[in-house]
Amino acid sequence: MHRNALRIATDIALRHLRWAVIAAQHRSLRKAAESLNVRQSTLSRTLRGLEDRLEADLFERTNGGTRPTLIGREFLETARRIIEEADAAFAKLKAMSSGQAGRLTIGVYASLAAGNLRATLAEYHKRFPEVDIHTIDGAHDRLLFDLVAGAVDVAVMTACCPNWDDRKLPLWSERVIAAVPEGHPLCEKPVIRWADLAGQPLLVKQRRSGPEMRKLIAAKLDAFGAQRLLHQDVSFDRLMSLVGAGIGICLMLEGATGARYDGVVYREIQDHDGPTRFNFAAYWREANKNPTLGPFLDILRERYPDLSPDVAAG
């Protein structure tokens, strides 16, 4: 683009382009001025100034109205394209600034096969389809590190992070479920007691929920002596394949029961107090300025309101 043409382009405001397009649509300066809620003389002066800058006649002005010239029609076609692109860009920026569009990164500790987290993400996507949801799997330490580093906007994990000193929202709880090989004697029980698991080969993941499950097993079964823990460093799908092959029993959270595997039967684990549960919470940094985070937290608060005494009192 020549320097003179560049100067002209930067001198022309988007408002001038809109007024020119509206004048062409109405074919009457009076009607166009009325639609714009400006004086006809102001509109006429603006269009004259636009023509002077371009050094070209854009309109034919007659007693019968105002019509674009040949050059004017070409100019107006370009003007409409510029206006459409500008409107789209402004709409996108407005949507991003209000959290209606953009990207939200969620640290995920639990399975998305079923349960509350999956339902929450489905509801969020339904309300904000223009937001790209990015999920990151990990254990507590990794997700907390990612939160501090800004790689994750919010992490949904079991509520066992006493060292976290930023924002936290209590959410739901999930039952502990036993994945049992089909045909195993425990499949005949509608509910499994912890004592039933004593001495059984238990498949335990080395990462993610593994350490937490090991602590739970120790707390529930230490009274029965040393247990047969078979540590596995594989994906959840492969872990279920081992269960289906009869290698052992795997403890999991109920959110993962939405996926079915050949040869695997799910049973709830209970003790004298009823089902064994893990409580979940959402963790995030107050300093996080991602506009998409607020609407996601609003949905969490709507679906799982914090009813703790301190919140109720406030």
Brief account:
This protein has 12 helices and 13 strands.
Q: What keywords describe this structure?
A:
single chain; 314 residues; alpha/beta; Arc Repressor Mutant, subunit A; D-Maltodextrin-Binding Protein, domain 2; eleven-stranded mixed sheet; 12 helices; 25% strand; rod-shaped
Could you characterize what this model shows?
- By secondary structure, the protein is α/β, with parallel strands linked by helices.
- The chain folds into 3 domains: 3-97, Orthogonal Bundle (Arc Repressor Mutant, subunit A), CATH 1.10.10; 101-172 and 278-306, Periplasmic binding protein-like II (D-Maltodextrin-Binding Protein, domain 2); 175-276, Periplasmic binding protein-like II (D-Maltodextrin-Binding Protein, domain 2), CATH 3.40.190.10.
- Helices cover 44% and strands 25% of the residues.
- It has helices spanning 3-11, 14-26, 29-36, 40-54, 70-97, 115-127, 140-149, 194-197, 210-221, 236-244, 293-303, 309-313; strands spanning 59-62, 65-68, 101-108, 130-137, 154-158, 167-181, 191-193, 201-205, 228-232, 249-253, 264-271, 274-275, 277-284.
- The strands form 2 sheets. Strands 3, 4, 5, 6, 7, 8, 9, 10, 11, 12 and 13 form an 11-stranded mixed sheet that branches. Strands 1-2 form a two-stranded antiparallel ribbon.
- Helix 2 crosses helix 3, helix 2 crosses helix 5 (70-97) and helix 3 crosses helix 4 (40-54).
- The model is unreliable at 5-10 (pLDDT under 50).
